[in-house]
């Protein structure tokens, strides 16, 4: 192994060994060694005699909002919120439509919503289940793998990304695949165990920068009324002694927080106050006497909190968590780094072929994954139970299927397992409220024949094994009441529900106002906006919901008008400080003045 020399020299040596046709396998998310990647892509860009093909996923970028209010909010706080993470050059070239002709990038999962309308990214996207990405990759015969690793006394840890690299290394050891492995060390990465541990001599090149770059830090999103309600409903489906998988973001945080409240026996008053139909099927409300085991492609904040609190404690092969990758906050990385090694060994990082699939050690996996609940988020659901999670009707990829379908498959393959897909009942776009439960949708991630459990803020729809008419009724009953009759009319016109079916009275008041009456009294106590903390300042937390409202109204003068009217009154002392944070305390010109009035109006129309 060559080490202790620069990224540019390593890039030159790699080209000398690999040759002019470089086929690079690059880890998903945090595992990209950005210094090495930029050195290699820079070299290839200067050498038209070379060709570089990159296969990867989830290229991380700090956000660059296109709207002026978003820019004013984020730009002063980028380093504090996202870390001083370096720009990945090929992502800049893609976004600015100046990718060198001898470099191509294929991704099987995109940073959610960030690549809509970017032609080079959309056309080169590869749609694949997470477990099938390895097959796509090996079909291209990669001759180079670059990886960010945690340095250890006797080797390296793949840390955040053993997900595919573990299997690639196994194939190289077996002689079925030949490639060069170059690593970049970063001591900020937690030294995770499990299958993530590799020997020093596995790496052909190692870059050990004197000053490693700062890791990307994901920003925790606020958990609103809708997310908390969904989390509460989901918590009723999780059996003690079971197996758990949840995803990143506010919905995952809400589910984990609800489980922590449940374990503390702190939900009885919330359930007594619930105005929505709870049914008899899902009644898991007690504390966790046995504890949970987690098998999850992504190790997320919610899973770690449950582990730290002792809710996740059921051990399988010495570990209570098996996960394949992580991208989280600086606080998350710090807690893992500082965790005693014997405690951290309870979290085993494994390839995605282990976490997301049953084949391979199938008997052991079946015995371990009892009472499994796989919880994932969706964008749209049809009345017949099909779900869209990764793309729009016109084919634009929002993110990717990732491992969602893998876990749906597991839910049907395992005894007593369930797939739980969650989504808000509505969304607001250009000032108009739309139902996320629809009659049909022009894209499908999970087909109707694999329908299982769907959860909105208004309740749980248990769909598995039900007839189409029963499924339609269950979905209508968790839809927003403003859209129920229209949805039912479409089902009737298609001859899919009996003419005498009527929406039961218990489901006729599925409204935001009724939801607020339920969870609102707990928002300053048991159901906080940031249950796991935040890097946002108090002023930023106050601005977030107001800016969210304006984003929903953007593009519709009619929707913006109420905020303009509300913002015309004189500025209060508190508002002055918030406008100062937005750089709008002394507006110069009509545009800035209009933005200041809109922000004031939004603050007044969504008071804390």
How are the SSEs placed, and which strands pair?
Layout: E1 2-3, H1 7-18, E2 21-25, H2 34-46, E3 51-56, H3 68-74, H4 78-82, H5 89-95, E4 103-107, H6 119-124, H7 133-139, E5 144-152, E6 155-157, H8 165-174, E7 180-185, E8 193-194, E9 197-198, E10 205-207, H9 225-235, E11 243-245, H10 250-263, H11 268-273, E12 293-298, H12 301-308, E13 321-325, H13 330-338, H14 341-344, E14 347-349, H15 352-355, H16 362-368, E15 372-377, E16 380-382, E17 387-388, H17 404-413, E18 418-422, E19 426-429, E20 432-435, E21 437-438, E22 453-456, E23 459-462, H18 468-476, H19 481-493, H20 512-519, H21 538-553, H22 557-566, H23 573-581, H24 590-605
Parallel strand pairs: 1-10, 2-3, 2-5, 3-4, 5-7, 7-10, 8-14, 11-12, 11-15, 12-13, 13-14, 15-18, 16-21, 18-22
Antiparallel strand pairs: 5-6, 6-9, 16-17, 19-20, 22-23
Domain Acetyl-CoA hydrolase/transferase C-terminal: 331-491
Keywords: Hydrolase, Transferase
GO molecular function: acetate CoA-transferase activity; hydrolase activity
